[in-house]
Specification:
Order of helices and strands: EHEHEHHEEHHHH
Helix content: 40-55%
Strand order of the largest sheet: 2-1-3-4-5
Oligomer: single chain
CATH architecture of the largest domain: 3-Layer(aba) Sandwich
Largest sheet: 5 strands, mixed
Radius of gyration: 20 Å
């Protein structure tokens, strides 16, 4: 049986205990079972952006050290953007794994992210496209929210009435976390539970409720 390790990452700050880890772990586990792979260790980076290189990721650095010392030749990730969102950083990390003779598989699609080298431009292009799509999706959401605010200011001269959640500086980070969890597949109830578990404060100072999160999600989608 082939042995492998798993690597998971979440960019939300704090101790993330919600659906993010369960989803990544389950997708990786199912791929391993279906392909006769034994997972011997797991590595995580919590609160780490996908634009950060290797020296900023304790979990990924430990993963590389483990596979080197134990002659592991396979690493499983949920998807390409768990390794890196930025195409350049993704290529740098993939080259490091290639130097170790290690394959990195995106379990959600069964794609070997380390397949090929500069002599195989097609494989390299696929990797870069996957990373670019992940970054594009994130930028689209940010731009939609920004455009909605600018249209409102242009129409009224300023944003009238109570500001929507996320327009205050103190709420920007929380809104980005809600957005990441939502587009990763979590529903309003799970997001509310995760926000409370991470001690994120609502505008009222009361515990988060699923109805409040649902309203924020509806505004995000309508923007």
């Amino acid at each position: 049986m082939t042995t492998a390790v798993s690597y998971m990452r979440c960019s939300g700050d704090g101790q993330i205990t919600g659906d993010t880890w369960d989803r990544q772990s389950e997708i990786i586990r199912k791929y391993a079972v279906a392909n006769g792979i034994e997972l011997v260790s797991e590595f995580r980076d919590e609160g780490v952006t996908g634009k950060m290189e290797l020296e900023g990721r304790a979990g990924l650095s430990a993963c590389m050290q483990f596979v080197r010392e134990n002659e592991i030749k396979l690493v499983l990730v949920e998807s390409s953007d768990r390794l890196a969102r930025d195409a350049i950083i993704s290529e740098v990390l993939i080259r490091e794994f290639q130097k170790l003779g290690v394959c990195v598989i995106a379990a959600s699609g069964g794609i070997d992210l380390t397949e090929g080298d500069d002599s195989n431009p097609t494989a390299k292009l696929v990797r870069q496209i996957l990373a670019a799509i992940a970054e594009f999706d994130r930028c689209v959401v940010v731009l939609k929210l920004r455009s909605a605010r600018e249209r409102k200011r242009a129409k009224n001269g300023k944003c009238e009435g109570r500001k929507g959640f996320g327009e205050r500086q103190s709420e920007v980070q929380i809104l980005e976390q809600i957005r990441e969890w939502y587009y990763a597949g979590s529903n309003a109830r799970r997001i509310a539970d995760d926000l409370n578990a991470c001690n994120y404060k609502s505008r009222s100072g009361l515990p988060w409720r699923s109805t409040t999160v649902a309203k924020i999600i509806r505004r995000m989608e309508a923007a």
